[in-house]
Amino acid sequence: MTTVVVCAGGPKQELCSLTTLQSQRDVVFIGADRGALYLIEQGITPHAIVGDFDSLSDEEYQLVLAQTNDQQRFKEEKNETDTDLALLKAFTFAPQEIILTGVTGGRLDHYEAAVRSIYRLQKEHPHIVFKIINHTNMLQFLLPGTHAIYADSRYRYLSFFAHEEPIKDVTLRQVKYETTKEEITLGTSRFTSNEIIGTSGSISFSRGICLMIRSID
To answer: What is its EC number (predicted)?
Structure first.
C-alpha cells in the first residue's frame, strides 16, 4: 500500500513523527513550501516539493532544490494554497492513503482550509484514506457504512462529530460507550472521548459525514 505524506509549513512542533513514517514501506514524502525544509532537516529526501516557497530564504530554497529532482514552483498569486497543490501532486503516486501534517497550530485559516480540502477530497475519492495528523491527534472523515477502528496506544481517545448534517443510525461497538442506531446531531459534544475496548472497535451509520478525531490526551 502506497502512503503519501504531505508535509506543510505550519509550526514545526505540531508535526507528526516523520521518522516513524519513514521506517514504513512504500511511503512517499512531498514537501509543501516550508514543509520541504522540515523534511530535509529530519534527514528525509522529498520525492517532490511543491509551492511558491515564499516562506523560504533564497539560501533555504536552494538547499531544498538540491535535494529533489521533482520540484514545482508557482507564483505567489494563485487560486490554490501550497497544501492543495501538494495534495494534487500526491495523486500522481497512486496512493491508497494520504497523510497531511504541518497544518495545525499557527494560522487558523490555513488549518480550516486544510480540513475543508481533506473533506472534499475524501468525498471525491472514497477509495483513498485521508488523514490530518499532528503530534497528538489524528483527524479523518468517514463516509456512510461500517468502519473498523483499530486500537492504537498513540491515540487512546476517540471522538465523533457530525459534519454539515446529522449522522443517522450510528452504531458503536467494542468501545467504552456503545450505541445502537442513534443520531449525532450538529453541535452536540455527546460523542466525545470514547475509548476502544480490546484490539478494535467499529462505527456504522447510514447517512451523513462523520468527523473522527483520535487523540493522545
So the answer is: 2.7.6.2
Q: To the nearest 10°, report the CA torsion of 3, 99, 162, 12.
A: 170
Q: Cell triple for residue 131?
A: 488523514
Mark out the alpha helices in the chain (DSSP H runs). Answer: 18-22, 35-41, 58-65, 82-90, 108-124
pLDDT tens-digit readout, 100-158: 999 998 889 989 999 999 999 999 999 999 999 999 999 999 999 999 999 998 899 99
Q: Are 39 and 9 in contact (CB under 8 A)?
A: no
Residue with cell 532544490: 65
pLDDT (tens digit per residue) in 30-62 = 999 999 999 999 999 999 999 988 888 888 988
What domains appear along the chain, each with residue ranges and CATH number?
Answer: 3-135 (3.40.50.10240), 142-215 (2.60.120.320)
Chain position carrying cell 442513534: 182
